[in-house]
Design goal:
25% helix, 479 residues, OB fold (Dihydrolipoamide Acetyltransferase, E2P), binds S-adenosyl-L-homocysteine, seven-stranded mixed sheet, globular, alpha/beta, Rossmann fold, 12 helices, 3 domains
């Protein structure tokens, strides 16, 4: 029998029935046939589906759904009609509670497989680290405060906006995205009808001609301030005053600008901002701290969950007012300013100079004086301070902080950075991560160097996508 089974070879274009038994890192369904793993986009854990194989590799393959034979109990009707074409929400067809379980398991599995940690199961059984249930959202829609809509022309010459179809630059018309702020739709209506009326051409990527490339919208969730920025292939917008007139009828309109991008590139924003009306920034609050956000500023896109994420980081830092803290990869200083309210002194490090300018400005407008920011790579700035030792500028508290917080990009921390953290011997390390695979790798290193994992808290910053953020508290074993 077993000899015979091997004769069945899966091949491209073959159709077969499959039970989805697992979810992959991006939320895709995983099933097994003839001992081979098949990844099925848009399939939900528990589905029985008929699929067609699109591509075969040696030990795995990719298939697409032809028919859902028996839908999973976790399947829900997605709110957005376009969710399969768009690819922005990989798991919108999955019940939200199940999305959260999926994310919790993803963190757990990475800690086990990549970090080599013993981890308790979801039901609390077994030994090892506890991964807390994911902090989710009560209302997991319309949560993003920033949106960038591409503008183009369809086959019939009509101006369109919407989203790029998955892995392409074809615009699928849609003004209602369930992740973005609800005001976006009205703004897009105004921009598109203005362009039609005044014959303002959309930019064409293939020829490099035309004017309007993207509309960037930012919305302050607490202040209700709105920013509209048109990204243009030029420096002027004809009849701009008419657009301003219409946009300023919307309550909360605060900033209308142009962003100049004359390059033939995939990068959305250029460097220069030209003011059309109002200020060049909007103001928003997270956890009582005020931020000024310009079109070019980095700012967390889900303010409601950011407050929970950074609130957890602050709690884990365990501050009493006497501590010195380093905040590495500090961006515009969001975490630094949170920490500064409870610490003696905070030092932030960030590689992007304009982000540090924002951070300094944000400290100033909040009257926070116990923070200092440095531009540079964490893996260079930190060792430089440490290796130079105590000078007039470097004080003992800088070399031996009580707490170090890191919030690196997806690739995680550089080893030189981790090495220096260990040498500085902080009592606690708080790791905020947007990729639990590199998190697990870095935690493993720190645990080999004298630290232990105390708490693991995933937070759902991006409902309906496969992403999960995690805050981890580590402490020195000898303390
Ligand atoms: N905590 C920040 C966001 C962190 S996102 C906030 O709340 O705003 C990660 C940040 O790390 C980005 O701002 C990125 O520019 C920065 N970064 C990337 N590589 C870096 C490096 N090697 N050293 C320091 N900062 C880096």
């Amino acid at each position: 029998m077993s000899g015979k089974r091997k004769d069945i070879r899966l091949q491209k274009d073959m159709e077969l029935e499959l039970t989805i038994e697992d979810m992959g890192v991006d939320g895709e369904g995983i099933g097994k046939a003839e001992g081979v793993t098949l990844f099925v986009k848009d399939a939900v854990l528990g589905d029985v589906v008929r699929v067609k194989i699109m591509k075969m590799k040696k030990n795995y393959g990719y298939a697409r759904i032809m028919e859902i034979l028996d839908p999973s109990p976790y399947r829900v009707e997605p709110k957005c009609t376009y969710h399969r074409q768009c690819g922005g929400c990989q798991i919108q067809a999955v019940d939200y509670a199940q999305q959260l379980r999926f994310k919790e398991n993803k963190v757990r599995n990475n800690l086990k497989r990549i970090g080599g940690f013993a981890v308790k199961e979801a039901d609390g059984s077994g030994e090892g680290i506890t991964v807390n249930p994911v902090i989710g959202m009560d209302e997991p829609y319309f949560y993003r405060n920033k949106a960038q809509f591409p503008i183009g022309t369809d086959k019939n010459g009509n101006i369109v906006t919407g989203f790029y179809a998955s892995r392409s630059h074809n615009i699928i018309p849609n003004r209602k995205c369930y992740l973005g702020a609800e005001i976006n739709e009205k703004i897009l209506d105004i921009v598109i009808s203005f362009m039609k009326e005044y014959h303002i051409p959309a930019y064409d990527e293939t020829t490099g001609k035309g004017l309007v490339r993207h509309v960037l919208i930012r919305f302050g969730f607490t202040t209700k301030e709105i920013m509209v920025c048109l990204v243009v292939n030029g420096r002027k917008l004809p009849h701009a005053e008419k657009l301003v007139e219409r946009l300023t009828e919307l309550e909360g309109m605060t900033s209308i600008t142009l962003n100049v991008n004359e390059k033939n590139t995939n990068v959305i924003l250029g460097e220069e901002i030209i003011s059309l009306w109002g200020q060049d920034y909007i103001t928003d609050y997270i956890g009582g701290i005020k931020y000024q956000i310009s079109p070019l500023s980095f700012y967390q896109v889900n303010p409601v969950q950011t407050e929970k994420l950074y609130g957890t980081a602050l709690e884990y830092a365990g501050l009493t007012g006497k501590e010195t803290v380093w905040d590495l990869y500090c961006g515009i200083g969001t975490i630094s300013l949170f920490l500064a309210q409870k610490a003696k002194q905070v030092y932030g490090v960030e590689i992007v100079p304009p982000a540090i300018e924002d951070a300094k400005n944000n400290a100033k407008i909040n009257g926070i004086e116990n923070v200092e920011f440095f531009v540079g790579k964490a893996e260079e700035v930190l060792p430089e301070f440490y290796e130079k030792g105590m000078t007039e500028k470097n004080r003992e508290d800088m070399l031996h902080p009580d707490v170090i917080v890191v919030d690196p990009p997806r690739k995680g921390c550089d080893e030189k950075c981790l090495e220096t953290i260990v040498k500085m011997k902080p009592e606690r390390v708080v790791y905020v991560s947007c990729d639990s695979a590199t998190l697990a790798r870095d935690l493993k290193y720190l645990c080999e160097q004298g630290y232990e994992v105390k708490k693991v808290q995933p937070v759902d910053m991006f409902p309906h996508t496969g992403h999960v953020e995690t805050v981890v508290l580590m402490s020195r074993k000898d303390k």
